Every structure is written in C-alpha cells, then in structure tokens.
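Cross-posting from the modeling subforum.

Setting up a comparison between two proteins and wanted a second pair of eyes on the formatting. Protein 1 (sequence, then structure tokens):
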Amino acid sequence: MQIKTIGIGSVIPYARNPRRNDAAVAKVAASLQEFGWQQPIVVDDDMVVVAGHTRLEAARSLGMGEVPIHVAAGLTPEQIKAYRLADNRVGEEAEWDHELLRLEIGELERAAFNIDLTGFHASELVLDEIDYSFLDDADDIESALDDMMSNVKKAIQIEFEPEDYEEAQQLVKWWRDRKAHLGRMIIGFLKQAKEKA
C-alpha cells in the first residue's frame, strides 16, 4: 500500500456521504493528537474521500495543513461506492467481549492513561451485570418490578428537573436493557469529576 502526504485542501469530502460523523470528530481529533496518523485517508483517483471522512474533518479542526492519503486505484466506480459503504457498515457487526474490555481498560486505568482517548466515556465502562436475584423470591414479580420502577422514579425526581423526568426514565430503561446500572455510572462519573476538581 502506497501512502503519500498531500495538502489538506486537495482532499475532497464525498458530497453524498450517508454517514453522519460530526459527533465523532472531537474524539478522532484527540486520537490524532495522541497517536498521530496511524491510518491514512483513502481517496479515489479524483481525490474524493472513500474512507476517512471523520479523520479529514478532525485534521481540519486541528488546523493541519497536510494529511496522509492512500489512493484506492484499480477499483470501478461501483466498487468505490460499495467500499465506502462497507467501510462504515461492517464494523457495526462486531460486538465487544466485555470481560476482555474490562481487562484492557483496567490496565490503562492502572497506568493512569486518559481513558477518554480510547473513544469510550466513563459511563460506558460500567459493565457489571445487574443482580435481579431479588426477583427469585418475589411472590408477585409484577409488584416487585413496579416497586423497583417506583424507586427509580423517586431517584429521578430527586436529581432531575421536572422537565427532564421523561428523558431520564428513557435513559434508565436504555441502560437497563443493556444490563448496565445507571446509578453506578453516575457515581463513577461524579467521582471522576470530583478528582479533577
């Protein structure tokens, strides 16, 4: 694979890129600052981006004048179009092994490495399973679940403004569905914020 460095103004974003990447630009920019260029921007013969729109935008946000590119030569227009889609889509099929992820993150934390540079947020890293064993002894599971939900609502009402209740409840449900405990995440986040203060 041949890589060359060219002026950033020569690289053209694909006008019909269906992937919205604005939310990722800051994280990629932080990654570029920490790790440098470890992956070039892939372009076609006309210097239009095939893969690497987020890296290009991150480089622009950092005021970089040059970027590394690889020209995807020898591909048909259809192959370029398909590769552009596949590059963004196929990674979504992968899943995390949470036990191994916990080990990797733990080692980085012990080394006092900035976890944000991994692309993860502290709230995403609370991966412990919720213990629902209290439901095993419940005579009426529906009632036990209602009690649990009532306690969640009380906690939300204590910590959130009334206009935020509905959104907070949706977030709690979203995290519960993923077997994460929102309370632990919030505590972890608050501890980190306190340590930084």
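Protein 2 (same layout):
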Amino acid sequence: MTTPTTDLALDDIRLGDPALWLRPDREGMFAKLRAERPVSFHEERDFPGVPKGPGFWAVTRYADVVRASMDAESFVSGHGVSIPDQTPELNEFFGSMINMDAPRHTKLRKLVSAGFTPRTIRQVEESVRAQARRIVDAVAPKGACDFVEEVAAALPLRIICDMMGIPEMDHRRIFELTNIILGVGDPEYASSREELMAAAVELFQYGQALAEARRTRPRDDITTALIQAEVDGERLTSQELGSFFILLVVAGNETTRNAISHGMRALTDFPAERARWMADFERIAPTAVEEIVRWATPVIHFRRTATRDLELGGQAIRAGDKVVLWYNSANRDEAFWRDPYRFDVTRTPNDHVGFGAGGPHFCLGANLARREIKVMFDELLHRLPDIHVTGVPGVHASALICGYRWTAGRSRRVLSTEYPFERNARRTAILYGPTCDVRALHPCDALSAGTARVLSWLAARPFRPSHSRCRMWHGRADARGARSLRAPGVRP
C-alpha cells in the first residue's frame, strides 16, 4: 500500500499543538518526519496549571526508538514519561514504576510481578473466556451495538477488576476514571489539571482501601498477592500500592480496549485478512494478535530524559533534554517494515513496539493483553461471523492514547457494529454525580510526605468539573440517587 501523505510543510508539523491531533493525516505527518527530519524538536503545548516546558525531541524511526528504549542509563524515566514536567511526587503518584529507574524500579517490578505469576495467569485465562462469552451473550440479540463500550471496553475492565478483587458494582466508575486520566486534554473527558488529579486521587484512595481490606481478609486475588509479596525482606508501602493500583487499572483497561477496537475496524477494512484468520483461527491467532497490537499501537508515545550529551538519529542531544519515543511512528517505519500500511494477520517476524521497545520498562501485562485479544476475537468471529463496523467516530484528541471515543450516554458517532440478529433499541445508562470538592478527601495516615503534599495541593482547589462524572468515591449520592464509588468494607 502507498505511504500516506500530508499537505503540511515540515516546519508546520508541531507535535506539541493539540489541534494537530484532530487532523486526519497523522500517518502522513509522521511519514514526512521519518523521511526528512527523523529526530526533530518541538515546542510544548500550554496546559492549564503547568508551566510551559522547554520543548522536546521527537524520535520517529524504529531503530532510534529501540536504541533509546534499550539504553536505560542514557535515557531515563525517572523525570517522567509524559511530556509536561511534574514534581517527583506527582510522577510517582501517577506513574508508579513507569516513572522510576533502577535500582528502585527493579525492586518494585519484582514485587508487583508476584501478581503476574504463571499460576495467576492460568486462573485468569478461565475468567477471560467466561467474560468474553458473557459479553457476546449480551450483545448478540441486539443486532447492533456500540462496540467500544459494550465489547472492547467491557472485557479488559472486567478482567483487571476481577484480578484485583474489585466488586462488579464499582466497575463502571473505575472505567470512567481511567478515561479521565488518559483523556486529559480532550474536553470530552477532562480539561484541567484539577480534574486529572481528582480522578487519580479517587483511584489512589480506592486502591489503598482495597489493600487495607485484604490485610484483614486475604483473598485469592492480585491485591492480596501484592500486599504479601516480599523482595529482600521489603514489602510494598501504602503509597506504592496506591500508585501501582492507578497504573494497573488504567493500563489494564485502556490499552487492551483500544487494541480490540482497532482490531475490529482493521478486520472490517481488510476482509481478505479476516477470511484468512477465520479459516484457520488457532494457527494464525498468535501472529494476528501481534499484528493487531502493531496496527493499533494503543500507547502513542512515552518520554525519556537524556542523562548525557549524545547523538541519536544524526541529531545532537544534550544532557537534560526531553526525548519522546513515538511508538506509532516506529510501527509504520518503512525502513524496518515491509508494507507497513497493510494489515497482515500472518506477518512474520513482527517485532513491533506496541508493548514498548524492550528494556526494563517492557509492558508487564503483555501476555495478559495478548490472551484477552485472542479470546475476544475467538468468541466474536465464531459466534457473530458477519460482525462488521458500520460507523466510525473520531479518535481521542490525545497524543498519548490512540483510542476511539465511547458514548457516555451522549449523542455522538460511535464505533458501531452490526450483525444479523434481531435489533433492539439500545439504551445507555450513565451515573451523574455531584460537584466535586476535593477538600472532602480523607487521606490515610500511611501516606508519604510527597503524596500528602499532593493532597494538600488539591485541598486548596475546589473545582467544578466540566463533566459531572468526576465524583469522589466516598462522596454523597446526588439528587438523581446515583451511588458513589466506595471500596468494599469502607464506610463513607
């Protein structure tokens, strides 16, 4: 297939400009950067409440992205993996171990790996199949559905919540909060730093309350495994548990959901590849799943910071410079991939960077994500063999996450699918909550000084979110009777 193009001049491709991410020619812009300016400098965007940063280098070619990922001494994560600068406390609060470097990252990764043992994954495999069947059971009689919300989002949400021991009544709220955190900058989800922080604190406190409940009443779930894990006589602190909970539920929900959504569209757009896979599903599934992840590249970029003066892709980089690795561009690099704009379910080899480009920060949940994608399409393609996309919405206005929008009970175009079953009118319910006041937070005594400063910063800033979905989990019911999210065993 031909390489996409753009009518933008090279100097007009400004990756820090939010308006650029609403354009339909993203692929063409990155193709031009790879060909003419593979490592280019860009100004940072203005973000409310955050001082404008010094700018960043954009790394767009596969070989350079892999090199920077593998060299964890020259390109570190401890200054943050998102483009805007944050305080060390905020970096740790939001990103847990993805915002750390060795040796602390090594220790924490060993501790949390206790929740992803082969035994745990085997147990999860049974749950993945059961949940995928439940999802198809629910949508099959309708004849049409909002694929993102009712299928793609439903599976990883249920699986990660089940793994953590989160009650089903709280799943919806967890889903809403992950949308706010990863959709910040997109006015459909969160338009301010305060909304972002409120969602993160809500998840943080929920995770800590869940962990406290497991200390007194252990269960066979990842939360219990995490609080009991030890490395060199050390266990996860309360702060580490809360921060890792944010990372786990956000990454576990959003990225797999977006891979499944993009996979469904790709199978619609490339019917010959779909037919090949359906003709020999089990044999082709391993390569098909990898191709879906390459095609989707759910996480568009992560940032690193240079620790020394060096050269990357022919460009001089100075110590302290921000270096942003564009995984979406690396996964379309014509110098590495043969026919990168063709969706090929038998592509071999397929050393994509959809789970990261190697090194110490390779995705911990990659095998779980692969399993979820395979099982979901197994159920869909065998039980609804004619399912196809009938309506495609815009993607998130985000430079971080490549995902389709979900309905949230609003009138907008959605990633809709049809299949030959009786059609029923779809009703989407949404809980609306009251205005948030972060002064109502009740931080746990075990919080670190850094997290306490974060909460103090929030406490001085009551706000009215642009979407009433922002609601603290220990808050009040609103006039409509909407229930607040509450950790099991914790009183409001």
